[in-house]
Amino acid sequence: MNDIRIMRNINRNLFEGLPATADALQEYDSEAARLVREAATYLVKARRDNEPAALNEASKLAFQAAAELLGHAGGSVYVRFPIMIAARLVELEAALLAAREQNAARGSHEA
Fold this sequence. Notes:
It is a single chain. The protein is built from five helices and no strands. It is mainly α. The model has no long low-confidence stretch (mean pLDDT 77). Helices cover 81% and strands 0% of the residues.
């Protein structure tokens, strides 16, 4: 197991100097980033339209993103961790998509 202080230093160095708008996942693994974006789109659709098929597709894509991340993580990392991270990334991306839709709707009502 790696010392937590060493891991913190590694993480700090990875993100030091990056602008707030940087997409760290895209930089780390563009395929995982693509899968997360696609899963988030399906998740928003599933929630908005109450569509089980879209929810299943979002789930499938989130697991594919987790598998992609696991491939980079190496054998010493628990399988649950990349799955948890991928699921959280999908949730965050879906929240961004939903917020964009809400802002666009508000903008059209104000005009």
